[in-house]
Amino acid sequence: MYIIINMKTNIALIGFMGTGKTTIGRALAGKLRKTLVEMDSLIEKEAGKSIPQIFQDDGEIAFRELEIDVTKEVAKGENQVIACGGGIVLNKINIDRLGQNAIIVLLTVSFDIIEKRVTADKSIRPLLNKGNKAQAIKELMEFRQPFYERAADIQIDSSNLGIEATADMIINRIKEYEGINK
Predict the structure, then answer these.
(1) 3-state SS, residue 119
(2) Half-sphere exposure at residue 136, Cβ-oriented, CA atoms within 13 angstroms
(3) In what order do the strands lie in the sheet with 35-38?
């Protein structure tokens, strides 16, 4: 009898802004001895400017085109934990490319936690640059939720978990997903 294990070497973390993709990704990469790849940083490097500046100068469509290009390159890599931007799921081509060599993990937290984190974060978030930030968050979350759910192989609600516990839970859920703990 042969056991076939899906040998995807990457883990892609998706989820709304403020769900901890980069922070949890850093812990996860350390535990698994993988390289952390932070998509937004790569996009900024490629563009030679910050994401808010890309949105201001070139618009969201130009940003999404950069995101597609960077995703194409990142998806070719191996042994990575990829902290994706919150809107990566809006282009199916990104998810298809990531999914070829990555288990896609959706990180979720409650609305209250997202609102608290995003409001406390003083960095500029172009898609929330509106009068009522809480309403903008709620509307964007509701719009994106079906995209996140379709893209995810695994979902983790880390609302009541710390960073290390979330990373450990992801590792355990990936083992279950790949049939290693059976």
Answers:
(1) helix
(2) 12
(3) 35-38, 80-83, 10-14, 102-108, 154-157
> Cα separation of 98 and 104, whole Å?
8
For the chain, the domains span 10-174
Distance CA 175, CA 122 (A): 37
Kindly give, in sequence order, each residue whose CB lies less than 8 Å from that of residue 73, ignoring residues fewer than 6 positions away.
Answer: none
Digit-coded pLDDT (tens) for 37-83 = 999 999 999 999 998 899 889 988 999 999 999 999 999 999 999 99
What's the rounded Cα separation, in Å, for the pair 28 and 89? 21
Q: How far apart are CA 14 and CA 105, in angstroms?
A: 6
Neighbour-count burial for 61-95, b at 16+ CB within 10 Å, e otherwise: eebbebbeebbeebbeeeebbbbbbbbbbbbeebb
Q: What would the pLDDT profile of 91-112 be if each residue is shown by its tens digit? A: 999 999 999 999 999 999 888 8
Task: Enumerate helices (H) and strands (E) in the chain, giving the number of each.
Answer: 8, 5
Instruction: Give the CATH superfamily of 10-174.
Output: P-loop containing nucleotide triphosphate hydrolases (3.40.50.300)
Q: At what angle do helices 60-74 and 51-58 cross, to 10 degrees?
A: 130
Closest alpha carbon to 63 in 82, 39, 38:
39
- The model's pTM is 0.88
